[in-house]
Amino acid sequence: MKDEIMLTPWREFPVEEFEVLVPKIQDKKLFYGVRAPSRIFRKYQWLLRNPDRGSQNSSTQEDVLITTRIRIVNFILQNTEINSQEKLRDLIKEKVFETAFPLHEEKEQIEFLKHKWARWRRMCCRQPIEEIRSYFGEKVALYFAWLGWYTYILALAALPGLLLFIYGIIYFNSSQVSKEICEANTTIMCPLCDQKCPFWHLSDTCTYAKVTHLLDNEGTVVFAIFMALWATLFLELWKRKRAEVVSGWELYGWDEDEEELALELINNPEYDLQKYQHSYFRSMIVLLLVLLTIIVLIGIAHALVIYRVVATVIFSQSDSDLIREWANTLAVLTGAVLHYMTIVIMTKVNRCVALFLCDLEKPRTFSKRENNFTVKIFTFQFFTHFSSLIYVAFFLGRINGRPGNYVRVAGKWRLEECHPSGCITDLFIQMATIMILKQTLSNVVEYISPWIAYKMRKLRVNAKSKVQVEQEAEDPCKEQWLRNYQLNEVNVFSLFNEFLEMMIQYSFTTIFVAAFPLAPLLAFFNNIIEIRLDAIKMVRLQRRTVPRKAKDIGIWLQVLEAIGILSVIGNGLVIAITSDFIPLQVYKYTYSPCTLGNDTNIDCLTGYINHSLSVFRVRDFEWHMKLQDLAEKQITECRYRDYRNNDDYSYSVQFWHVFAARLAFLIIFEHVALCIKLIAAWYVPDVPQWVKNKNLEEKKKHLQEELSVMDHSTEV
Questions:
Q1: What parts of the sequence cross the membrane (predicted)?
Q2: Which of 59, 269, 474, 648 is most buried by a 10 A CB count?
Q3: CA–CA gap between residue 497 and residue 507 (Å, rounded)
Q4: Pairing of strands 401-402, 200-201
Q5: 705 assigned to some structural domain
Q6: What residues have CB less than 8 Å from 1, skipping those under 6 apart?
Q7: SS3 for 276?
Q8: Rounded CA separation 567/77 (Å)
Q9: 372-379: which pairs have CB atoms within 8 A and are 24 or more residues apart?
């Protein structure tokens, strides 16, 4: 920093009350070390009755936690105006100052966190939540407490998911539906594209049918109901866990608005109160812009659909037999990779849009701004991640028309079709690809980027900086200041980013888990690494974050509750629409050989594939389709997946039976699952009884002390 500028003294605080250490450095950077006077903390204790200790008679600076002192000093630095009406952030933008940050301490506490927490070898060890709270503040401690609890409870979901997957592997070759597909050597299917695509035999997709049964079997419905119950129990048990964690922090009487007002008054006794305001016009503008952004995100999902349609045509016309055979699967797989790339790009765009919308709203406080930002960015990220998945789950193969009357993109390319055994494998491929890429590449980048930045910054500073201190008394400070300066800068939303990442993962783990039973297992292993990764970043690679006080995880709890409701709806729709569970049951109890009661040894699903395929006359194809092998093999009819009449191609009675059964199942499933959620929420108290009793005893003790003081007082 070329200009040596001292901050203008704060109102009511004479310059001599501050200890300002200014060691000069040869590369023209000047470090200001600021330590606030003790009477600031006395004011804080008096206004808030010392929430750090729960007593009212404290008067020394040492009684205030170091995290609270850092928070107070940071608030004053950020909100004090100099003579030009500029604040610290304005001076940083104008390059007067480069940055401002609290220091990592050179004490046993940080060494304890480095060796007992922020190490890869401690992955399976319990987290020291109290030590994290004492060093980084309550908000960071609650994040790690929540993440640890979420990971612990994930094990309960990962085990059934793994067992379901193993069950599918064991009975990989035993499904009657798969057997019929593998034996359908004479069943000729309609071409998958308009140009150069041949007629094909249903038995060609034998392996795909077996994979589908691995995911879509009898246990899928049970697992979906279990996960709906798991999501509810997780939330209720977390509320209990949070109450236990914060029971010794004495935060039940703490109010965020009251503390912010106290800090404003400490900084400026003449502070003008910012009252609550609401502008319907501004809210309408923000709402319209949010809807416009969502429409854009849905449009991107449509672009991915068009890519898969075009890719399917290109792969189907390939000279390679292998590529032609797996054309649909390759289109879904490459589309999933492209989807991941759009997620990476749109995450940055969504952040900028959400911040812009928050600026339009003009929130009253930082916490209100953070809440508004949270709602918007999560909404945008949800549509970015799940718009394409929603299409694959609920629209793929259902809006593409039929042979002779296909729905086409731009009047040229046919929409994708589902495999005769169902679309659930396509959803599985899409989810598995995105989740694996996010939990590998994203985590690698999340760790490598700050590590490389730290090493490069350290090399650059060490090469250029030769420190010469004018006063020997300042010598102990210089090394610590430089070491902290070499660390990576902490973004004000750094903890927010970690929460957002976990919320998206939680959405993947719950909403479409019926199609991807391994999602909880992948999330479990990822989180074990994520906890230590975040710890290493905070302790070893980043400057110390400004501690913030909190008694819960804030608006993220409402986000989790919303995801829990979406998980019930999503899993119900996956089973009712994406899965073949309902058509199989309708056939089994309405049309199968078992309904005749003649032979009890026959499998009740015998004949299902023939029943679920409709017949199309080749002469009714569109005139521009170039059909191969038509004259050679004298093909007059082909089959396609649908329930239609053979004469006029209208929907058959079976279609309406399946449609009614899907609708009935969806209504019953969601009502039963939601009732189970409500019962579980009622049955499990949010706060354990021993925590309530402890608070009651503390209140009694406090009142007894007040009575004792009054009895010994000489005043009337």
A1: 140-170, 220-238, 285-310, 330-357, 377-396, 503-529, 553-577, 659-684
A2: 474
A3: 15
A4: unpaired
A5: yes
A6: 28, 29, 30, 96, 97, 98
A7: coil
A8: 44
A9: 373/493, 373/496, 374/496, 374/500, 374/554, 374/555, 374/556, 374/559, 375/555, 376/290, 377/350, 377/351, 377/500, 378/500, 378/503, 378/559, 379/290, 379/294
Q: How many helices (H) and strands (E) does the chain have?
A: 25, 10
Q: Is residue 200 part of a domain?
A: no
Instruction: Give just the sign of the alpha carbon dihedral 396, 398, 403, 407.
Output: negative
Alpha-carbon distances, residue 537 vs 125, 270, 425, 468, 602 (angstroms): 18, 40, 38, 30, 61
Q: Is position 461 within any domain?
A: no
Q: Which residue has the tokens 């005893």?
A: 697
Residues 359-368 as b or e (16 or more Cβ within 10 Å = b)? eebebeeebb
Which among 657, 649, 674, 673 has a CA at the least distance from the CA of 595? 657
DSSP letter, residue 96: S
Of 40, 68, 100, the domain-final residue? 100
Domain boundaries, position 710: 687-715
279 within domain boundaries: no
In the chain, the number of structural domains is 2
- Compute mean pLDDT per 10 residues along the chain, 716 residues long, and list them: 35 43 55 82 78 43 77 88 81 86 81 86 86 90 93 93 89 84 88 77 85 84 86 87 82 78 85 80 92 94 87 78 77 88 91 91 83 92 91 84 83 76 82 87 80 76 51 59 84 84 92 89 92 90 89 90 89 87 90 76 86 89 66 78 89 92 90 82 81 82 80 59
Cα–Cα distance list, 440 to 172, 381, 386 (Å): 29, 19, 19
Q: Which two tokens stand for residue 110?
A: 């940080």
